[in-house]
UniProtKB/TrEMBL annotation:
Keywords: Signal
Domain Fibronectin type-III positions: 306-404
Similarity annotation: Belongs to the peptidase M43B family.
Protein name according to UniProt: Fibronectin type-III domain-containing protein
GO terms assigned for molecular function: metallopeptidase activity
Length: 621
């Protein structure tokens, strides 16, 4: 009944031009051991029966079903080592986000994790043999999650069990790793098997057709997950390398024999073997998870009824913006919490809160690095071993988002050294911002809507090739993501100074506009998200001052050029303005070297007249 085992595949190690080794990117592959067709038939029959019974009883759960997880953490015999409580809370909080659409939220059973202090198991956990050693540890009223330091098979990353009326089927074994991978992929995937989800590419029930015609009986038995040829013997190249980029896309071309139809698997599905930048499950998979829960609730060898811990709600939850990020703080009255789950909503409606992260016991702060930009956001939290006891709700208006970097610019000096727009030097030898992100107070003055300006961006070093994307918040709504706001991308990665042209759309109204430049180094792709997470590189924000809108500077009355009241924009025309004269306008003597008046272009309408006084100078530029 083992659902899966995991392999590690190390991609080619990248070496920087400085001779230092960049971090390895580990790819965890899941090699499946599926049920036999006979076992699968029995299990599907049992699930269908449980669902039919539930419908007959009209006992379908409404709202949220809280499912207890008993955490077991392997440590050395002396009690050292092992998975941290902070990560333990954080990864289940992230997992909760993926299970909300199924009406499932996990909480921890107990007030502390079960610590398995055993040097031998800590050094090497062997599926099968080691399981019998820890079998007495299983709670009979919860799912049992074991946090493994190392499997005896060094390529194994984790496995779990499909539903069965056996307490062992409640076990998942997770090799500890990054919060991002465990919370967004590995644990949601293994718990998917726990609730009867099958790999999208499974063939033990037959090959799913591209048309989906046999989707109810073949593949993963779910009809809204397209056929996925990963690992099929007839397509030896179908695998994780077919998916790249962010948003992730499936790049390989495999066609179905007989129909010539092309396979288009989802590159982001949690039950696939892909490693995308975002992860999801389909409505069909969520229905199957709900049915899997219903089936497990009929089992008698164990239950999912471990009680919630009666924890006192935290109070005084408040939010502040610190270094551009939402920082929560609260007062912790508890002595029996296993940690806290933090939830966020953009409406404040209780039904809309979604788990976004977790912290360990006695923590009193949390930084939300992924709050939506320029929005009012609401927060609340609960003890992670409680199903209620919510804190007060607090809200705060978030600032414009900022990108973040895992490694930034400092280690290899892979950043932006200088920026010039319209021959104005905005920064020069600016070095590396500590976080990889800086906001400059430098303003590019008097740019004009409807015109284009040359820019040049120089790298700090000319060794590591970089890619650049530039955005401008032309409509000033706090977001760089509106149509037309991405204004430049490098055509290829380069070690040279990047030059190009920045066009201000004619519709931009006068005033300040934020400009964002994101550079990435050692990347196959241009930055695509103005608020995204990157590895190496640097981002810088500047301000553009848009001086006027072309072709709307007109006269409204007779008078001297230098009188603001003469002009439709209630100011004297500036460099870059296209001016239309419909009245009698006099140009007074110039105060050299300043001319009497400036404009980009002048149109004299019928009835309009421009009279030069002696010494009057008009400069067109
Ligand atoms: Zn799996």
């Amino acid at each position: 009944m083992k659902a899966g085992w995991w392999l590690l595949l190390f991609v080619a190690t990248l070496r920087s031009a400085w001779g230092q080794v960049l971090p390895d990117t580990a790819r965890i592959l899941c090699g499946t051991v599926s049920l036999t067709p006979a076992q699968r038939k029995l299990l599907e029959g049992a699930a269908a029966q449980a669902v039919a019974q539930r419908q007959a009883d009209a006992s379908a759960p409404t709202g949220i079903t809280y499912v207890p997880i008993r955490p077991h953490i392997l440590r050395r015999s002396d009690g050292t080592g092992g998975y941290s409580l902070t990560s333990l809370n954080n990864v289940i909080a992230l997992t909760n986000r993926y299970y909300k659409p199924a009406g499932i939220q996990f909480f921890f059973a107990g007030t502390t994790p079960d610590y398995v202090d055993d040097d031998a198991l800590y050094a090497s956990f062997e599926s099968g043999a080691s399981e019998s050693v820890i079998a007495t540890r299983n709670a009979a009223n919860a799912l049992n999650l074991y946090y493994i330091q190392a499997f005896s098979n060094p390529g194994m990353g984790g496995y779990s069990y499909f539903p069965a009326n056996d307490v062992r089927s409640t076990q998942s074994f997770i090799r500890v790793g990054s919060d991002d991978d465990l919370g967004n992929r590995l644990i949601p995937h293994e718990l998917g098997h726990i609730f009867n989800l099958i790999h999208t590419f499974d063939t033990s029930n037959g090959y799913e057709q591209v048309s989906g015609g046999n989707c109810k009986s073949a593949g993963d038995l779910v009809c809204d997950t397209p056929a996925d040829p990963t690992g099929w013997p007839q397509f030896p190249d179908a695998g994780p390398d077919c998916v790249s980029g962010c948003p992730s896309v499936y790049n390989c071309t495999f066609t179905e024999s007989g129909t010539n139809a092309q396979y288009r698997p989802s590159p982001t599905n949690i039950m696939s073997y892909f490693f995308p930048c975002t992860h999801d499950l389909t409505p069909g998979q969520y229905r199957r998870i709900m049915d899997g829960l219903t089936l497990r609730q009929t089992h008698t060898a164990y239950s999912l009824t471990a009680p919630s811990t009666d924890a006192a709600p935290v109070t005084d939850l408040s939010a502040a913006i610190v270094s551009g990020q939402v920082t929560l703080s609260w007062t912790d009255w508890n002595s029996n919490e296993m940690g806290y789950f933090i939830e966020r909503s953009v409406t404040g409606n209780p039904a809309d809160f979604v788990c976004i992260g977790g912290v360990g016991p006695n923590a009193t702060t949390f930084v939300d690095g992924h709050a939506p930009s320029a929005t009012t956001v609401f927060y609340r939290l609960r003890s992670s071993n409680s199903t209620g006891s919510w804190s007060n709700v607090t809200s705060i208006a978030t600032p414009v988002c900022r990108p973040d970097y895992a490694y930034g610019c400092q280690r290899y000096l892979t950043g932006i050294g200088g920026v010039t727009i319209d021959s104005r030097v905005l920064s020069q030898n600016s070095g590396c911002a500590a976080s990889g992100f800086s906001q400059s107070a430098t303003v590019v003055p008097s740019l004009t809507a409807g015109r284009s300006y040359p820019f040049a961006i120089s790298p700090i070093n000319r060794v590591n090739a970089m890619r650049l994307t530039i955005w401008a918040d032309f409509n000033r709504n706090g977001s760089f993501s509106d149509p037309g706001e991405q204004v430049y991308q490098t055509p290829a990665s380069t070690t040279a100074v990047v030059t190009g042209s920045l066009t201000i759309p004619p519709t931009v109204s006068p005033g300040r506009v934020s400009l964002r430049i994101i550079s990435v180094a050692v990347s196959a792709d241009n930055p695509t998200d103005p608020c995204g997470s990157y590895e190496y590189g640097e981002a810088e924000d500047y301000q553009l001052a848009i001086g006027s809108i072309s072709d709307v500077v007109k006269t409204v009355q007779n008078g001297p050029w230098t009188d603001p009241a003469v002009w439709s924009v209630n100011r004297v025309p500036a460099t870059g303005d296209a001016v239309t004269i419909e009245h009698v306008i006099s140009l007074p003597p110039a105060q050299q070297p300043t001319p009497s008046g400036q404009a980009r272009r002048i149109t004299i309408s019928p009835g309009g007249k421009l009279i030069y006084a002696s010494g009057g100078v008009l400069r067109l530029n």
